[in-house]
Amino acid sequence: MSTDTTTAGAQAGSSGDPDALPFRYSAALAAAIERRWQDRWEERGTFFAPNPSGPWADPEAAQGDKVYLLDMFPYPSGKGLHVGHPLGFIGTDVLGRYLRMTGRNVLHAMGFDAFGLPAEQYAVQTGEHPRKSTEDNIQRYKAQLRQLGLAHDPRRSVSTTDVEFYRWTQWIFLKIFESWYDEKQNKARPIAELVAEYAQDKRRTPDGRGWCELTSAEQREVIDSHRLAYISQSPVNWCPGLGTVLANEEVTADGRSERGNFPVFRRNLKQWMIRITAYADRLIDDLDRLDWPESVKAMQRNWIGRSEGAQVRFPTTTGTGAPAEIEVFTTRPDTLFGATYMVLAPEHPLVASLTPLQWPEGTDERWTGGAATPALAVEDYRAAAARKSDLDRQENKDKTGVFTGAYAINPVNGQQIPVFVADYVLMGYGTGAIMAVPAQDQRDWDFAKAFGLPIVRTVDPGDGWDGEAFTGDGPAINSANDGVSLNGLDVAEAKRAIIDWLTEQGSGESVVQYKLRDWLFSRQRYWGEPFPIVWDEDGPSAVPESQLPVELPEIADYSPKTFDPEDADSDPVAPLSRATEWMHVDDTHWRETNTMPQWAGSCWYYLRYLDPQNSERFVDPEVEKYWMGPDPARAGDPGGVDLYVGGVEHAVLHLLYSRMWQKVLFDLGEVSAEEPFRRLFNQGYIQAYAYTDARGFYVPAEEVVEAPGGGFTWNGQPVNREYGKMGKSLNNVVTPDEMCERYGADTFRLYEMSTGPLDASRPWSTQDVVGSQRFLQRVWRNVVDERTGAARVTDAVPDDETLRALHRTIAGVREDFAALRYNTAAAKLIEFNNHLTKAYAGVGVPRAAAEPLVLMMAPLTPHIAEELWSLLGHTESLAHGPFPEADERWLTVDSVEYPIQVNGKVRARVTVPADAPADVVEAAALADAKVVELLAGRTPKKVIVVPGRLVNVVG
User: Fold this and answer.
1) Is the peptide bond before 859 cis (omega within 30 degrees of 0)?
2) CA-CA distance, 423 to 403, in Å (whole number)?
3) C-alpha 446 chain-centroid distance
4) Given strand 244-246, what is the order of strands in its sheet?
5) Domain 171-302+519-599, CATH
6) pTM passes above 0.90
7) Comparing C-alpha atoms, which of 703, 761, 751 is closest to residue 731?
8) Which of 20, 110, 158, 279 is the 20 to 30 A CA-CA neighbour of 328?
9) pLDDT tens digits, one per residue of 185-244
10) Does the 895-954 domain belong in CATH 3.90.1720.10?
């Protein structure tokens, strides 16, 4: 027994209770034990993971099996953690500790995704620099995570706001900026190689001129059009009242800002984009190589939205501009003969040039929106549409729109069809224009009915169809011209025939289209990574690598410039534009004043964990290959993190963006892994009951008690119970700090892991936490004398029943830990400890049974396990094992207990030899006294024996 344990015990017993046992496992004793072991692990570098090379090299340790475990990057909120946040963190920690005890080299680190809007908003409100509040929040998070005993390698912790970290974020952005996607080689290549191909006439320019015939500005324009990072005029959510562009998630369904309730307008603004669409096929196809939940794969496939169809060109009549063609993408070109009008998204670039000065003669009044001219009608409609969110535009059942005054010509029949502007068409999918086929699309049907437009069926709905739009399959009808007839063909045949005809006529071609749009990568924020870009009058250029990092300058005012909330034509002014000395590099060059989105650092942070002190590279190639390289023993293995654990809310964007960045780095030869995360696991959520009083106010959930006659009360008054996500708004937040103070970190860890499968959401119930504490107290009493603090185990040989129970527990727990079934592992440990308590009450548990129990508890409850291991006489930490192994001799079962169901209810149990055949089991069951009594002399109708499980008697 160590001196510090005695001290802790004495302190724990000084509660003022004369009957208190000085070494009882109380919250105070648990806290003392936990702090001591956390200090000891930190002092000794217990969880340092060696690399194969570099300053942390240990070639011998790196020879064994390695495991790279990863938690999704947390944002260090000023509110700190509640008990729902660390569910996944503890889950990965349990696995990491188990694997480390079985001899694996485990890398498990924790960093912080620390740029972003909340810190900037706080800075605007308080004047405190966001770096100060961010670093304070990180320190609080680190303290909260430390008290949970998480076995991270602290040397590897990073924050996206660290200058040395975002230096490499900027470096990766430059790699993307200086790359293009070669569709022939199906990979990214350096821009320099593209320039060489043009210069050597291996590639023709868009207009067919030789490279040398182009001016330098024209050459630059051609090259910039290929870059994976480029500038584009893109539709965004512009909020003048806040002075910034908002993400879709920050806009309410009625087109207003979630923060401040200001109007939000859809505007085309100059923004940085990343050409993620170039990787669409690989992002879909490589999902088959990943060990991910099928639901997440489906979400990514749906988000990318690959679909095959045709690009069709519709010539237009002249508006105020030159004649133009409207291009549409359709997955149903077989319905072209039913296209009776066209619709452009309000943001479509052709809208203005197509709109004539006057309404064509005979224009239907319903089409004009009551405006005197097409230009006025379109202008008013576009302004109204700009106030709506994309979601509202898609889900609104009332179809609105105005006629542009222009007509297009349907290429299959030469008919003039009117061109409308309507908000149910978005620029974010296809070409921002549709051919409307009301007979085969319900939205088009509704619009056609509202505006009195023709409806022509091109698919036979079959006899008896009395519905509106028919969206099913069937033979083509009303679909023929002098060159092609689709009539009678099924959908697939009709598609092939019409695409061939369109291609011959030069009116279209077969294409593959995606819902995925290129990635908007600009933010009008201060608290983000500066772009490593300088501008001159010709456009943007990369900052030389030698000048990285481009550091975020100090400014006095972090807020974006705001405008009249209704001023839709105002333009963003980024906060960094106030840093005039920083922005103006010289008389002819200025810096980009937008910053990168919060996604930037989280796209690659897992690579920096591998080698965070490297000042020469973002990661050493040998280190990256060791931790993340493909496994040659697994066919098709793309490499990546061995296990990534996090919430399903990141199923699409974060995972998609990370995969794209990883693939760019792989294409350029910077990494060996094609994918960032080879295995993904989504943990569930902690939910909690909330309670409202008679006024409907939420009362503190912790103070509510269950009434003896049913229901719940608070301060003696009845309250209503509801169920929801834990949060301050419901007054039901419980923090891990509270739990650690009241019960200890090990109790908290055990409770969170015991309440259900890791991938399932579960309710939080503070009153149930005591059950986990009582288990630890029972284990403690089995090993420790609560009066002296000395170990009370014996050297007696365990009896056969105990050995069988022990080795069954070992086999089951090993299997459960490996499969992340921590709740069933905990149940097995509780069951085994109960056996020891009953079998050895008053005589002391044999060391040969106690030590394996302590070792098996270590992944779940590491502090108490370390303390008990030390009290049992071991001088070294158990963090690196050994983990018990089951002896096969004790896994065989001599007998089996069968529950006996009579007419569906368990009425008796019978024990028979494990190898007893079914007829012997049946005879034993029917001979049981309770069964004989229930049957009352009747011969049962049926007896079903499920081997090893149960006997079902149907009387």
Assistant:
1) no
2) 12
3) 37
4) 244-246, 229-239, 265-274, 519-520
5) 2.170.220.10
6) no
7) 703
8) 279
9) 999 999 999 999 999 999 999 999 999 999 999 999 999 999 999 999 877 888 999 888
10) no
